[in-house]
Write a structure and sequence with these properties.
Number of strands: 2
Shape: globular
Structural class: mainly alpha
Length: about 270
């Protein structure tokens, strides 16, 4: 039953990856965190490491999701390479720093940071102009040097620390540069790839240097069975999402994006 739920949520993560650039983290992290805590309890080592496992497994799932979703959007013509590089390089630097910080921090700290960042992002998107609705005849603007360098490092650090792929920062950032929700969400996928790769490798390496005694079936903090089930479900979800690319009205797209963030926030607060 647990793996059936994981497969269903993997499909949801695939759907949100293609349509909203989430990479799966906002679906996978809360789900896996709650499942591990419920299944093993507070006294078990896996229950105590639930947030770290959820974040590490999420970054691993994101590698597959980001690659496939990026290919779909590339074929649909939604990717603009001028926004991808060198931003992706600075995001990679921040990703290594973020993964190291998350492994060294307690699970409670990571969970609180996850909730706090979600709340701030929701407030910013809802209250600040330029996200829910683009100005009439707005033209896309280039990213400045500060946003590319400093912003890239910060995005990579926070995204990997929380295991969310960076879409929660890259989508609003690109949206305010004048891109449509379809373009901003599409761009979030390749920009999530350096976070996913750097985060996964760092979690694996640092867990070996800081052994926590997890049972067989784990590489570092990565739950291999959960990764497999989530990935298979995500492949189904991404296939279903393909025909919907670019067909959603822009303002509705932005509102649904914000609504999904709110649902994840409520879920984490309930835990």
């Amino acid at each position: 039953m647990l793996y059936l739920i994981l497969a269903a949520c993997g499909a949801a993560s695939g759907l949100t990856t293609v349509l909203f650039g989430f990479g799966g983290g906002f679906v996978v992290v809360p789900l896996l965190y709650h499942m591990l805590k419920t299944t093993y309890g507070e006294s078990h080592i896996i229950g105590q490491s639930a947030m770290h496992i959820a974040v590490a497994t999420s970054t691993c799932v994101m590698i597959v999701n980001a690659v496939i979703a990026s290919r779909r959007h590339a074929r649909a013509g939604n990717l603009d390479t001028s926004y991808l590089w060198p931003l992706a390089g600075y995001i990679s630097i921040g990703a290594v720093l973020g993964a190291g910080a998350a492994v060294l921090a307690s699970g409670t700290v990571v969970r609180i940071a996850f909730i706090a960042y979600l709340a701030l992002t929701i407030m910013d998107c809802a209250l600040r102009r330029g996200f829910l609705q683009q100005p009439a005849q707005a033209r896309p603007q280039a990213l400045g040097m500060l946003k590319t360098t400093g912003g890239g490092v910060v995005i990579g650090l926070i995204a990997t620390f929380l295991g969310v792929g960076g879409s929660v920062m890259t989508v609003p950032l690109l949206r305010r540069c004048g891109l449509s929700m379809t373009q901003a969400s599409a761009m979030a996928n390749p920009l999530s790839l350096p976070v996913a790769i750097a985060g996964t490798l760092t979690y694996m390496v640092l867990a070996w240097y800081q052994p926590v005694g997890l049972r067989a079936g784990y590489i570092g903090y990565i739950d291999l069975m959960a990764f497999t089930v989530l990935t298979l479900g995500a492949l189904v979800g991404m296939r279903c999402a393909g025909p919907l690319i670019g067909r959603m009205p822009d303002r509705m797209h932005a509102r649904i994006y914000l609504g999904l963030l709110l649902m994840v926030l409520v879920s984490m607060l309930a835990g």
